[in-house]
Amino acid sequence: PSHDFCPPPSELPAEAIREQLARMLASPAFDVSDRLKDFLRFVVEETLAGRQESLKGSTIATTVFRRGEAFDAAIDPIVRVEASKLRKALERYYLLEGVNDAIRIQIPKGAYVPSFEQRVSSPTAPVNEKPSPKIVVMPFELLKHAPEQEYFAAGLTEELTTALTYYKEIQVIGSDSSRHLHRLDLSPQDIGQHLGARFLLKGTVRKARATVKISVTLIDTISDVALWSEYYRRDLTAEHLLEVQEEIAGTVASKIGGEYGIVAERLSQESRRTSLTTLSVYEAFLKFHHYKAFPSAAGFESIREVLEQTLKQESEDGFLWAALSNVHTDNYLVEFSPTTTSTLEEAERYARKGVALDPTSARTRMQMAYIHFLRNDRERFLQEAEQAFRLNPNNAYISGTRGYLELLFGNWDRGLRLLRQAIALNPYHPSYFFIAIFLHAYAHHDYHNAYDEVVKFEAPGVYLCPQYQAAALGQLGRQEDAKAMLETLVQLRPDFPARAHELTGRLIKAEGEVDHIIEGLQKAGLQLERQASQKNVIPFHKSRHPL
Fold it and tell me: Cβ–Cβ contacts within 10 Å for residue 210, how many?
């Protein structure tokens, strides 16, 4: 926060200055040694007594620090060193507990005579009563003092700040704002309180010959707990210095700021306690994140209500429209709701609204790509997915979703590469990514690995789980286990035997793989009803009524 101070009148009341001094010296926030307190007390009292001309280094050294008459500042720098500590302690105090004090005592650089300033603005309300989803990026530190290497640490800090700004739900406070706090040795809680930031990102750099070692840590400023820490080691030459900075910054930013990143994971649990009447866009995003991590019929109804209610207040937010489109495509795929019918036309209308409001958002573009995927429009899907990827190539969710959908379309090599890279980049990816890896293994007749992958898809109550498990088990000849999965499938989806090809083809687009899945289910014991065995299913993008 900024505060307006003006030069004091010819003389502020000495008693008011002494009261401010006593308040500060007694405050736990003014955490300095007794010697520094004596230093401050001495220079303030001397100034109030009109003897400021005598406040020289030699006087302070002999009076406060008990140096002898032979004191030589050129040999003994104690006064300069302690004055520097005192200035930092004063700045720290006025950033924190003393932020609303009426009088400010300072020791200007280059002198030991204190100045007294009086506030002319009204007291400020306590800062950061409810921290917002802001991240403050602290300047990266060099573990080994090497001025010639400072450019690398500074460049990495700025590259990381820029990479985080691609994640629009998070506000980023860069090193320009945090640099002056960094030298005060404040705690993460103090910095978070002062800047109104919930999270703090800090790191260290050590360069030795042609190798650079980088450590990065994300801290929750409320609990002062390190949420995540990672260590990177890279070979470094002048030719690819910028590439190293960009690669590490993109990786870190994705792990922290992505849809399934550490910040969203940390806050999503808290957001579930938020009432509909107080929802912000970011809180709606967190609830959407939780729903996508644990999809269910109840979750669909809840998140649909959340998004519709939030859109009444924030109707010009592109993300909200894209998210609403996404939950309706979920309902189109698995028919969560017995009362809400979701069509691709409706989902596309919401997606186009999102793109129109926020055409530079990778998320709105990827939702539009998803609509084209569901319509079996491969060319437009690939165009829109590429556009989303270009908008934020470091976003693990975007690149992962692209890989996931490409695999379902049968683009095996590129899809698998993109998806595995995204999973490695972010451990908090959605579990439905494993459906695509299952399909890759299944399509290549690697049924053991197919089964191992699909059991990682965690969505109790969604019929896709037992469907794909039963298909893999049927191909493996594990009849007893396959039968149990089939029973669960039909319990969740009683009409599946009559609609097996239709329902399977809504998500799986790879040529021949719908029949391949049905083959596995039949080996598991599924008896298809007569109308379900028709293979000439009308493509959904040509159907007037998809459901």
Answer: 10
Q: Is 470 within 8 Å of 482 (Cβ atoms)?
A: yes
pLDDT computed for residue 417 by the predictor: 95
Q: Taking each helix axis from N to C terminus, what angle separates 464-476 and 447-454, rounded to the nearest 10 degrees?
A: 160
> Which pLDDT value is given to residue 234?
87
| Rounded Cα–Cα distance for residues 184 and 453 (Å) | 50
Which CA distances in Å does 95 have to 186, 219, 220?
10, 20, 20
* Beta strands at 171-173 and 132-137: parallel, antiparallel or unpaired: parallel
pLDDT computed for residue 541 by the predictor: 35
Q: Rounded to the nearest 5 degrees, what angle is found at the Cα of 305, between the Cα atoms of 301 and 306?
A: 115
DSSP string, 417-485: HHHHHHHHH-TT--TTHHHHHHHHHHHTT-HHHHHHHHTT---TT-THHHHHHHHHHHHHT-HHHHHHH
Using CA atoms in the order 503, 504, 506, 509, what is the torsion angle rounded to 10 degrees? -160
Distance, in Å, from the CA atom of 71 to the CA atom of 197, rounded to the nearest integer, reads: 46
Q: Are 361 and 354 in contact (CB under 8 A)?
A: yes
- DSSP letter assigned to residue 238: G
Residue 116, classed as helix, strand or coil, is: strand
What three-state secondary structure class fits 233? strand
Residues making up the chain, counted from first to last: 547
Cα 151 from chain centre = 26
Q: What is the pTM of this model?
A: 0.64
The single-letter DSSP state of residue 144 is S
User: How do residues 298-333 score in pLDDT, each as one tens digit?
Assistant: 889 999 999 999 999 889 999 999 999 999 999 999
Query: How far apart are alpha carbons 452 and 22 in whole angstroms?
Result: 69
Separation between Cα atoms, residue 471 and residue 413, nearest integer Å: 23
